[in-house]
Amino acid sequence: MFQPVMQDQADAGTKVVETKKISSDEPRSLIDVVKPREMFIHSNGEHFKVDQKELFQNFWNDVSLWDVKEISDVSDQYSEQKFKNFFYGSGGQGKTLDLVFNDPIPIDIFQALFKWPNKSIEYNSFDRMIVPFSQQDKANKKVYLVSYSKETVLELTIESANYRNLMDSIAAAQNEMPHYDLYTFSANSKRDFLLPRKQKQLEAKMFFIETIKTSKFKDALFTDPSLVGEESNLNRTVYTDGTSRLEANQKDHRIQYQHRNINSSTVFQTGDLIKRSVKYFNDTGSFTDDYQYFGINSNQQLSFNMFMDGLPIVNGTKHPFGMTSLEVQWANDDILNYKRPNYILGNKASQSEQVKLMNGTELKDLIVKQTKYDDLEKIEQIFPAYQAVSTASDQDQAMFVWLEPVWCMKYNGKTVILSHDLLTEGSENHGVE
């Protein structure tokens, strides 16, 4: 567990606590780090993406003010077809707002986000939130947490002072939103994908990165930096105090801190891991850019990806720039493994250009034709992102990063960049790390 650095106090002959941090940025709350990635309107068989940042952010900010009055599992009320009708606002089910998360979010995280009664409920995770439009005049509103893969529906009865104004604002902007359509990739598939009807236009951007001094990581991550020794070889700098090891890899723009004398033997609930990770990141000043919870793997390693303009940033494949996420693994109450970028991206691009992304039909054609990821039932999500591309011939000198809009899919837990290069590649199941 993170412990503040101890500094000698000469006049008292004792040690006092002085917290060292990587960055002095303001701490992030859970609602800043756990967010939906996308938001859609479903209305009478039509689908629209809420692209307006202000509408998106205003709605999500209000969630922390919702007062949950009742909770009920209503999964048994939905057959497979009725579930899809409810989900997509079709078959007379009414207009809905659909919030899509990067990864299933545990119930105790939603409890922390809302004003939630202290009621025992079965532990579960949900990757969507469905909010009906047709209840603005009711005192108590219904909101639904949904696990799409498990077809689980949890009904929340809430009170919200701003609900009507927020939903009216979103509905009023519907005509300005891009149309999306539902796609499936095989006849027997149970999973649908919302993809744009027209090609999507986004900006590619160039950023000058600010490299963080390795000594800042040493001071923030080790319990007592005065006991730490340094060694360097080639493009790597290594610090160690005998039990923990910090390695700075300039070529991959990566910092890795490991505790070598402990093992990961305890299995934790994902919600607990998310909360303790956010606290650790705040304690160490790790939130140097906009990082959001992105997922957890089978080894209980959590990923918090860097985001720009509401899109996740992933490392490029052809000319990779390097690390674009905070990754952390716990062992009991201690950090077992912590990896992150060694730079700050900031939010001021030095140059930009317009890029067009494939529409839904073009995406489906690419996915069906490529053979590298041929089990289409393993596709979990499809979403736009930025890939971080190096512009330097020598990665050690890479001070600029090019953020290029791309389509990605989550395939069997891995993030894969969707490009026409897949049509010429063999059948290997690996994705962006």
UniProtKB/TrEMBL annotation:
It holds the Pfam family YycH. Signal peptide: none annotated. CDD domains: YycH_N. It comes from the Bacteria. Residues 17-431 form the Regulatory protein YycH domain. InterPro entries: YycH, YycH/YycI_2. This is Regulatory protein YycH domain-containing protein. It comes from Bacillus pumilus. The lineage of its organism: Bacteria, Bacillati, Bacillota, Bacilli, Bacillales.
